[in-house]
Write a structure and sequence with these properties.
Shape of chain A: globular
Strand order of the largest sheet of chain A: 7-6-5-8-9
Strand content of chain A: 5-15%
Distance between the termini of chain A: 9 Å
Helix content of chain A: 25-40%
Helix content of chain B: 10-25%
Number of helices of chain B: 2
Order of helices and strands of chain B: EHEEHEEEEE
Order of helices and strands of chain A: HEHEHEHEHEHEHEEHHEH
Number of strands of chain B: 8
Radius of gyration of chain A: 19 Å
CATH topology of the largest domain in chain A: Rossmann fold
CATH superfamily of the largest domain in chain A: Aspartate/ornithine carbamoyltransferase
Largest sheet of chain A: 5 strands, parallel
CATH architecture of the largest domain in chain B: 2-Layer Sandwich
Oligomer: heterodimer
Chain lengths: 306, 139
């Protein structure tokens, strides 16, 4: 049975097919209103989330399916000390597919080893967030029309930012990609990510601490938030949280067809004044997330029924 | 210092100095009934110092676990005081319950009775990563 734990669980061809379905859903939503009728999605969120959970729930409801679940660990049996494996074993009796977020890295993999229904990793600590990456890919495809021959800038917390690692892994599979990695020294991309996806494939890349020095080269700018919840030390968080702010002045230095993505939520790393710039795609990106999750739910349920 | 030669058993030689106790623990040699000698900081022509473990019985050694802890170690099988076989160490693709993940955010730190599994990601540097969270192992 197919699960989605890591973006690399999906081949390039599978991602292309899912993006095609998502585009068709956007164009012809009426064709999908009963695609998952009588099917139930469980959203098991052991860590708070707004857009990912709502996006999953909206996706399933628009497919004609039903939704159940919880939105924080304190309202589940995890607060009584129940293991992930036991929670999943129970929930498999109530749902046809499970989307799960957990603060512990690897928890969705543990769940998939026990589950009898497909498991979707909706974020595990600072590790993976594959449906965000699918959202990012759909956004790039719709806004740029292609995945190849792009200079992709990633800016902010590149160390703990799970969406950054997954996006690097996914984009490294396309031809003609250049990466520009923009972060403070303390939040650089971990060497194992660089070694596995950039150096191993001889992909050109540049590391810098100054966004303004490289913004004119970029086709895609992926901004990230410095996440308080990833730091053990509050002082480090406070020192690093305001290291990059994208402003209209910086946008004036960028290409006219740049696209700016952000997994959201934003705190202050993108000035609100940038929101009206047509190159700011992050709210459209959040909307696309629902459509790609619809395509994913359909694909996994279809495979599970075989 | 003199340690008796083994008549029948196993000698794990060329252990990186300081790793003998780790091997003793991880390979559960403390559970053996036979004589076991741990020699620390023995002279080594190659590295200056090395550790050696002598086991006075021909037991099954977990060569994969040994390779992970100390890839330079050699395993000699002794019968009638002669080395009759040298067993090569080969890094296993996957190891279970030999090491624990050091990442405090890893699910293995909280989940009950979970198997601690590491996958070989770079054979040249003997690099293993936690199957669950991808954190590099301290082997």
């Amino acid at each position: 049975m197919k699960n989605l734990i890591d973006i690399l669980d999906l081949s390039v061809e599978e991602i292309d097919a899912m993006i095609a379905v998502a585009n068709d859903i956007i164009d012809h939503p009426e064709n999908y209103r009963e695609a998952c009728k009588y099917k139930t999605l469980a959203t098991l969120f052991f860590e708070p989330s707004t857009r990912t959970r709502l996006s999953f729930e909206a996706a399933m409801l628009e497919l004609g399916g039903r939704v159940l679940g919880f939105s924080e660990a304190s309202s589940s049996s995890a607060s009584k000390g129940e293991s992930v494996a036991d929670t999943i074993a129970v929930c498999c009796g109530y749902a046809d597919i499970i989307a799960m977020r957990h603060p512990k890295e690897g928890a969705p993999l543990v769940a998939s080893m026990k589950a009898t229904v497909p498991i979707i990793n909706a974020g595990d600590g600072g590790h993976n967030h594959p449906t965000q990456t699918l959202t990012d890919l759909l956004t790039i495809k719709r806004e740029k029309g292609r995945f190849d021959n792009l200079t992709v800038g990633l800016c902010g917390d590149l160390k703990f930012g799970r969406t950054v690692h997954s996006l690097i892994a996914a984009m490294s599979r396309y031809a003609g990609i250049n990466f520009v990695l923009i972060s403070p020294e303390e939040l650089k991309v971990p060497s194992y990510v660089k070694n596995a996806y950039i150096k191993a494939k001889n992909i050109p890349y540049e590391q810098t601490t100054a966004l303004e020095n490289v913004i004119d080269k970029l086709d895609v700018l992926y901004m990230t938030r410095v996440q308080r919840e990833r730091f053990f030390n509050e002082e480090d968080y406070l020192r690093l949280k305001d290291c990059y702010v994208l402003t209209p002045e910086k946008m004036a230095m960028a290409k006219k067809d740049l696209i700016v993505l952000h997994p959201l939520p934003r705190v202050n790393e993108i000035s609100v004044a940038v929101d009206d710039d047509p190159r700011a795609c992050y709210f459209r990106q959040a909307r696309y997330g629902k459509f790609i999750r619809m395509a994913l739910i359909m694909k996994l349920l279809e495979e599970a029924s075989k | 210092m003199n340690i008796d030669s083994i008549i029948n058993g196993i000698v794990i030689d060329h252990i990186t100095a300081g790793k003998a106790m780790q091997i003793y623990t991880k390979l559960n040699l403390d559970a053996l009934d036979c004589q076991v000698a741990i020699i620390k900081n023995a002279s080594s022509n190659k590295n200056g110092r090395k550790d050696i473990i002598k086991i006075a019985d021909e037991i099954d050694i977990d060569l994969g676990a040994l390779a992970v802890i100390c890839p330079t170690a050699t395993v000699n099988i002794i019968r009638d005081s002669k080395v009759i076989e040298k067993r090569a160490l080969k890094l296993p693709e996957r190891i279970e319950n030999v090491m624990r993940c050091k990442n405090p955010r890893c699910i293995t730190t909280t989940e009950q009775e979970i198997r601690h599994i590491f996958i070989l990601t770079n054979p040249e540097t003997a690099e293993y990563r936690c199957m669950y969270c991808d954190t590099k192992a301290n082997n």
